[in-house]
Write a structure and sequence with these properties.
The complex is a heterodimer of chains A (about 200) and B (about 425). Chain A is mainly α and about 200 residues long. In chain A, helix 2 runs parallel beside helix 5 and helix 4 crosses helix 5. Helices cover about 65% and strands about 0% of the residues of chain A. In chain B, strand 6 and strand 7 form a beta hairpin. Chain B is built from 14 helices and eight strands. In chain B, helix 12 crosses helix 14. Classes of the chains: A mainly alpha (about 200), B alpha+beta (about 425).
């Protein structure tokens, strides 16, 4: 059994979280960054920590990490956001910080957990019915969810279905469906530039 | 390691597998009655998609991390993993079960952590030689969390179990409920935290009535001193504050980083929050029903007797032993005032149970009967002062048919020509 961590008892929870944030910002080791981010994301599961996390600006740390190249960091960061987004205060903070485009970008990640966390986070940021943030029911997003609802991945299918049923109006879904019928879906975009003619 | 979305990921298909077993309301460790329940339409919908016996990434046990900095090492070796509500599920996949025909014992073991709705073997799921894979569906997600935490990496019939969540078995409705429950839990936890934080400001106004509560505190055994130290002057809550939201405890207690490092980047985080809350509250003595209400974090709904009056109506659930302690304390106070078994009318308390008659002892006009009555009375006083009432259930005076008055018993005994003393003396 590993020994208990030698933390000064007077430091407390806030101090511990502060130590994690400091390490994340200072370390150059990718492994350490992943470990610390996962640690913070798991702390974000417990509502008792939300005040500390807001105080330490961990929400912004998660949002910033969504732009990292390391897929694991993105996965952990969006997982952390998924954990704390049901809270009202956290939700306001994320919306004000312009989190929706960052999270929406995660929908195109090749990582399953990243996409699932992103879909769930968007749902928690939305309000049920049609009163939610307009970005959350934009046409491209609804189209994306429609595609997900046809996915072979059952977890993704379930989440997308819930999104379409609970957070989009029937007219929005119908519009997205009709637009999709005419769009060139399934044709992959070129990954590289066209070769230049000599 | 990462799976693509349009890849071969698919849930295990139960339609080709063994009989579907249903087990409802099973909490105790006695042999369960196995009932074969017909598959519901919803189940068929959930399980008939995709190829049978697929492995998902989240089923695979991630390697343990051994490069953590000392200050954030956990007690048990853990992998680097984040648990979200998506990953957690009432469905648990159990791998590594030795193929010795021990399904019944396995289910019984898991049923200790909560009611199981369904269970069955996944014959098509890839398994090591001589092992089997099972799927267990708990009625509640919290039971699944606790079961996973407790049973993962546990020995069973000579094998090591690997327990993981299996959210791919959920129906749309189950997923929806899961997400909504999470949201509701956070709303409750945050609201309760705000409630208690505002109460902190009101408590200084009630300092004058705190004295009797201090006396009450001293009688409570096994109280979490960590919580008491930080909440001594601020918390209006009784020590057995099992109804306190998790957030209150985690924010109020001075650090226990060991507990919370456990939560960090681990592969078995089931029941982490509430298991640790139980530790803080020392709730292990309470019934499982109490654990359920703690998880639900329900705000107290009924007003119970309190040591002090408060300006606002605070509904609070008081466990039985606390009520007994409270009655004992009041009896001690009354005894000091010379009024035995009378309620303290100066406080606006809610009296639970039948009120004892407050009549003075009566001369039975017989020396032997008077002697016996005095003996009984003395014994009653001795026993209640020794705190027997707190230890057991059977010695509560208000349950005695003769209301704790020796004269009545002896009168009836005399009437019936018997002179037996009550059996409890």
């Amino acid at each position: 059994m590993a020994q208990k961590p030698k933390v000064d008892p007077h430091v407390g929870r806030l101090g511990y979280l502060q130590a994690l944030v400091n390490e994340f910002q200072e370390t150059e080791s990718q492994d350490a960054k992943e470990q610390v981010l996962a640690n913070l994301a798991n702390f974000a599961y417990d509502p008792g920590n939300y005040e500390y996390l807001r105080q330490l600006q961990v929400l912004d740390l998660f949002l910033d990490s969504l732009s990292e190249e390391n897929e694991t960091l993105v996965k952990f960061a969006v997982g952390g956001l998924c954990n704390l987004s049901p809270d009202k205060a956290n939700k306001e903070h994320i919306l004000q910080a312009g989190g929706i485009p960052l999270i929406t970008n995660c929908l195109s990640s090749p990582n399953e957990e990243t996409v699932l966390s992103a879909v769930t986070t968007l749902m928690y940021l939305s309000s049920p019915g049609t009163g939610s943030h307009p970005e959350l029911t934009s046409l491209p997003l609804v189209q994306c969810m429609l595609r997900f609802s046809l996915s072979a991945n059952i977890r993704l299918r379930n989440l997308a279905q819930i999104f379409l049923e609970d957070f989009c109006s029937p007219s929005q879904v119908a519009e997205a469906r009709s637009q999709q019928a005419h769009s060139a879906l399934g044709i992959p975009l070129p990954k590289t530039e066209a070769p230049q003619q000599p | 390691m990462e799976s693509s979305l349009s890849g071969d990921d698919c849930p295990a298909n139960l339609s080709t597998l063994g009989p579907f077993c249903s087990l409802i309301g099973h909490r105790v460790a006695h042999p369960a009655d196995v009932v074969l329940a017909p598959r519901t339409a919803a189940d068929k919908m959930a399980f008939s998609d995709g190829k049978p016996g697929c492995i998902f990434d989240h089923h695979v046990q991630t390697a343990v991390c051994d490069s953590r900095a000392k200050y954030r090492e956990s007690r048990r070796p853990r992998a680097v993993k984040v648990y979200t509500i998506n990953l957690e599920s009432q469905y648990l996949l159990i791998q590594g079960v030795p193929a010795v025909g021990a399904m019944k014992e396995l289910v019984e073991r898991f049923a200790l952590y909560g009611a199981i709705e369904q269970y069955n073997a996944l014959d098509e799921y890839p398994a090591e030689d001589f092992t089997e894979v099972y799927l267990i569906k708990f009625v509640k997600l919290q039971s699944a969390r606790i079961a996973k935490k407790k049973m993962d990496e546990q020995s069973f019939f000579g094998g090591l179990l690997h327990v993981c969540y299996a959210p791919e078995f959920e129906t749309v409705e189950e997923t929806r409920e899961k997400l909504e429950e999470r949201k509701a839990y956070i709303a409750r936890a945050t609201k309760s935290k705000d409630y208690y934080l505002t109460k902190k400001k009101l408590v200084p106004e009630q300092k004058g009535t705190k004295d009797s509560r201090q006396d009450f505190h001293s009688h409570i055994p096994g109280f979490s001193t960590a919580a008491l130290n930080t909440s001594e002057n601020s918390s209006p809550c009784l020590p057995y504050s099992c109804e306190l939201p998790l957030c209150y405890f985690t924010s109020q207690t001075t650090c226990l980083p060991g507990d919370h490092v456990d939560r960090a980047s681990n592969s078995c985080s089931g029941g982490r929050n509430h298991g640790e809350l139980s530790k803080h509250c020392n709730l292990s003595a309470f019934s499982p029903e109490l654990h359920v209400s703690t998880y639900k974090n329900s705000l107290p709904c009924s007003s119970m007797q309190e040591a002090v009056t408060t300006s606002e109506s605070v509904g609070r659930f008081m466990p039985r032993t606390t009520q007994l302690q409270e009655r004992k304390r009041r009896r001690d106070c009354d005894r000091e005032l010379g009024t035995f078994s009378e309620t303290n009318t100066s406080s606006n308390e809610v009296v639970i149970g039948p009120k004892l008659p407050g009549l003075p002892p009566v001369d039975l006009q017989d020396d032997s009967l008077n002697t016996t009555a005095n003996l009984i009375r003395r014994k009653l006083k001795e026993n209640s002062s020794k705190g027997i009432l707190t230890a057991g259930i059977k010695h509560r005076t208000w349950t005695l048919p003769w209301g704790g008055r020796p004269e009545l018993l002896l009168r009836r005994a005399a009437d019936r020509h018997t002179s037996q003393c009550p059996a409890f003396l």
